[in-house]
Design goal:
Layout lengths: L1 H14 L12 H8 L4 H16 L16 H11 L7 E3 L3 E4 L3 E6 L4 E9 L4 E11 L7 E5 L2 E3 L2 E3 L13 E3 L8 E4 L4 E8 L5 E10 L6 E2 L5 E8 L4 E6 L3 E13 L20 E7 L8 E6 L3 E10 L2 E7 L4 E11 L18 E2 L1
Parallel strand pairs: 1-3, 2-4, 13-15
Antiparallel strand pairs: 3-12, 4-11, 5-10, 5-12, 6-9, 6-11, 7-8, 14-21, 15-20, 16-19, 16-21, 17-18, 17-20, 19-22
Amino acid sequence: MLVCLSVCAAIKAATSQDAHLLPFCASENTCGETLLRMSAALRAQLFLCLISLLSGTGLTRYIEDNEASDGLYSLISLAQKRESEDFIFRRPLRCLDMLATEGYFTFVASRPQLACAAFIIAEPSEVISLELSDVSIDCSAGDFIKIFDGWVLKGEKFPSSNDHPLLPHERYTDYCSSAASSVSGQSSQNVAMIFFRIHSPESGFTLVVKKVHNPFPCNIMSQSPEGSFTMVMPHQRRNCSFSIIYPVEIRLTDLSLGDAKSNEISPLRQKWPGCSGSGDYVELLGGNGVDTSKMFPVADLCFSLSGLAQMKIGCDNSVVRLVSSGNYINRVTFQYRLLDQNEIPKTRENSLENFCSVE
């Protein structure tokens, strides 16, 4: 038992590093996706600890290698199988779901499901490829499946229409409007989602999720409330946002704006009332939604710096946004961490900052 306690303590310490995954661990299935990230040695220790704890109670006879089992053993077996290149991760898709791993996710309606959505998220340096297969729905009866390039939360889109390269209607891929038997799409950033409505029981589809490396990530939704990141925009007229759905402290550690494209171009030296007129700048935003165009501007910087600039943003969503004119190579490096409850700045009376607080 002492050995088991020691192993469990080691596992707890090791898995504490992945605590940022917990907000997405809403059920055993999504917890299984989190478990897949553990090393093989760590999973083996966890399983041995489980057996040791259950052997004293006689419960080990209930541990079975069964595909229908939803227990810890099946999750560990699944993780071990996934290490094989031939193994493909599969599980049912729920009416409201969050997916963070590649695989095949099958939805079969047991009753009419009229308002369903699945949110998919990848690492910041990845984009998401989605494919619909084995579709059995009745479009003429009002069924539909739509892929969306981004997320929609509380009626707001991420990335915002101002920051996305496609027009709003171009971001939707509608299965019922396509003549093909299968429909696919690829996101422009590390998040995507599907909406679907199915009236008839036993109707459904399979969603295939794959991840593709993105050399220049732009418009990122962070999976974690803590970390660091560097956004680079090389000679493109584009705005990029890094969104953190937590109240955080953001520290800008490096900012390079206005590296000339050629010797004929020099960085702008004109003084602007704020940075919006300079064409190349970084701004910090805070708000309770995900649309950056509706968020409160906390601070902006339009000059290069090498040092520490930091800000505490006590909002549901905190954003670092890089605006680029396309004339230069712009880069911003920053760190962020979750604020403790006692660190969240207090709101000020009768001000625009009542909806969230900054310091």
